[in-house]
Amino acid sequence: MIQPGIEIFSPPAEDRQVDYGEHQNAMNEYQSAGKARALSLGNRGTIRFNADGSLDRAILEAYEEHGFYLFEGVLGAKELADIEVDVANIVERLPAARGSHVDSQGRPALGVDCEARTLIWGRPLSDPVGGTNQDNGRHPAKMIEPEPPANAPEFVVNVILGSLQFSEACLRLYGHPQLLAVAAEINGDDFVPFSEALWMKRPGLGSSVAWHQDGTTHWDSSDLDSGTHGFNFMAQLYGSTAANGVWVVPGSHRHGKLDIKAMVEDAGSDRLPQAVPLVCGPGDVFICSRQAIHGSFANTSSHPRVTVNFGFHRRSSVLGVMGGGIHNDRAVYNAERIHERSKMIVYAIDARRKVFPAERPFSYQPFAGIEDDYRWDARARATIKDYNLLDLGI
To answer: Can you say whether residue 246 is alpha, beta or left, with left for phi > 0 and alpha for psi between -120 and 50 degrees?
Structure first.
């Protein structure tokens, strides 16, 4: 089992002495009960395919019922180690403080020369967006904000966007043949990208993410179904616990736009009784519908969570659609933009092929026959800066 080896992911010196009072007592009971419910759902196991290459029917049925599924043991020891090395490098290159253009060693900081939004900061243990109009108001209820340790920094980085330009290990994971086969099974052979990010829940510091549904378009469409807004893969470097992980309301992806504020008011707190935590070990990967109600609590635990997040859409959900305006500027997604953004999939497949030659590479059908025009090399590497300006957010 890989262990966190990055100093920045150690808990603050005072973490184990901080008394979070009644809130933590209630959270302990809630987490224990939620974990038991999560483990009873029957929606976890290895990725399984039939002889014809189709995804095992039981996996599809469980995903459709609950809105998420855990694929166990997807990443091996080498891949986890490669990702950890890249994450360590990324952490070292973060700005020394919010607003700084240099890292702790005085070097130009990660992302400071990017046009696209790269870093999302938050105050330790805070809820930066709940109950605000940010992100089109899709986080309507505020989460509880525990008091951070006295020695906590003023702000911490919670999310790194456009992460494939900063980590070749994450790029290679993006080209994982079994995960891409799952994407094709669920969204069709012509599936398209959404967005990619590294989520970092630092122990004793990580901010919460208020309950929400990801989708911002299509809710009133006559064609809306449980898969309209696509899904995210969430690969876990160190595993995920009830204390630091994402929580999901099972089945909520099948009921359209829901009144989250009313649900929180009915619960009497931010602890939705229907929700369960995504609990897993290192190298496991969750697939989670973007329409499912989900969120995460402030990480008051002494365990970090590092999630390599990447999502995919149906082409029909994106082509000719006006974007939601959260991940980039509002624009109509035409075929040219979709093709340009989808190049990252082909680059990832080739990058992975070079490091894992024993695997059978995935064949991405929209680029079938022209893959040789999109090999991962120094020239390609020089072209992907700010690639996430073309994210396809709906």
So the answer is: beta
Find out whether 321 and 264 touch, Cβ atoms under 8 Å: no
Q: What does the pLDDT look like over 213-249, one tens digit per residue? A: 999 999 999 999 999 999 999 999 999 999 999 999 9
For residue range 146-192, list pLDDT tens digits in order.
999 999 999 999 999 999 999 999 999 999 999 999 999 999 999 99
Q: Which amino acid, 345? A: I
- How far is Cα 105 from Cα 103, in angstroms, rounded to an integer? 5
Please determine, looking at this structure, whether the domain spanning 28-314 carries the CATH number 3.30.70.1290: no
Residue 338 pLDDT exceeds 70: yes
Which helix or strand (DSSP H or E) is residue 315 part of?
A: helix 315-318
Residues 6+ positions from 137 with CB-CB distance below 8 Å = none
Rg (CA), the chain: 20
Placement of tokens 């120094």 in the chain: 378
Task: Tell me the C-alpha to C-alpha distance, in Å, between residue 390 and each of 63, 137, 158, 386.
Answer: 28, 22, 22, 8
> Any idea where the domains of the chain sit in the sequence?
28-314
* pLDDT band, very low/low/confident/very high, at 329 (cuts 50, 70, 90): confident
Predicted TM-score (pTM) of the model is 0.95
Q: Is 103 helix (H, G, I), strand (E, B) or coil?
A: coil
329 CB-near residues (< 8 Å, 6+ apart)? 323
CA distance 23 to 16: 15
